[in-house]
Design brief:
Layout lengths: L10 E8 L4 E8 L4 E5 L5 H11 L2 E6 L5 H4 L2 H8 L3 E2 L6 H4 L2 H7 L19 E4 L2 E7 L8 E5 L4 E5 L2 E2 L2 E2 L9 H12 L7 E4 L5 E2 H7 L1 H4 L3
């Protein structure tokens, strides 16, 4: 007789590409409770609301990885629509959230608003949705207040624009620093383990292990 154990997914996710930057807004939910969070609602709020309805989940929070316009442009409107709190990013990105309107004007994005989150996040904090718990890693470099959300149980992270498949976040924007970004990746992300998969802010996801051995920004190829 063979013993078989059934494994059930603990979380579900849907990616909604938003804005002209095709930013990966992520709808993430706990499969047990169907409680959900929207991560980085950069814009196109009607599309985000439609995705929530299609998934049949109850959004209780909004999480922000950092303060750039393509990640936060729809946050204020979505907060008003859902009546839920915004958590993140780190307070070092306050100058970005205080200038969302100006940033939107630069990129031709209208209807955006400056705002303050209901909770700033710091290194070592924890956020929860349903039965899922995520540790906060402060990973500056792309922006001063960038944070990563890491769930150890599922070996999964939401990394925003800190790390990409085959690349890293740009550092030529105000407050950016390439040296600081690489330090954040090598000191905070790589030690999480090669088996950790991640969703990033743009493009396809990847794993820490794959990026460790193939990403030219980490192997010295760039």
């Amino acid at each position: 007789m063979t013993n078989q154990t059934e494994s059930k997914a603990k979380a579900g996710a849907a990616i909604i590409p938003v804005t002209l930057f095709q930013q990966n807004c992520t709808l993430l939910w706990c499969e047990t409770t169907k409680k959900a969070v929207v991560v980085d609602p950069g814009g196109d709020v009607p599309e985000i609301l439609a995705a929530i309805e299609h998934a049949g989940v109850s959004v209780e929070q909004i999480w922000l990885t950092h303060g750039h316009i393509d990640h936060v442009g729809g946050a204020a409107d979505l907060r008003d629509a859902l009546k839920v709190p915004i958590e993140g990013p780190h307070i070092a990105d306050k100058f970005l959230l205080d200038n969302v309107v100006n940033s939107g004007r630069t990129f031709g994005m209208t209807g955006v608003r400056d705002f303050t989150p209901d909770r700033w996040l710091a290194d070592g904090d924890t956020v929860r949705i349903g039965e899922l718990s995520f540790a906060i890693l402060h990973c500056p470099g792309h922006s001063p207040g960038s944070v990563v959300f890491f769930n150890d149980d599922m070996r999964f992270a939401l990394v925003g624009d800190v790390l990409f498949a085959g690349s890293v976040g740009r550092t030529d924007l105000p407050g950016g620093s390439h040296a600081t970004l690489i330090e954040s990746i090598t000191q905070k992300l790589l030690p999480l383990g090669d088996d950790v998969g991640f969703i990033c802010g743009h493009g396809p996801g990847s794993s820490i292990g794959h990026e460790r051995i193939t990403n030219p920004f980490l192997t010295g190829g760039m």
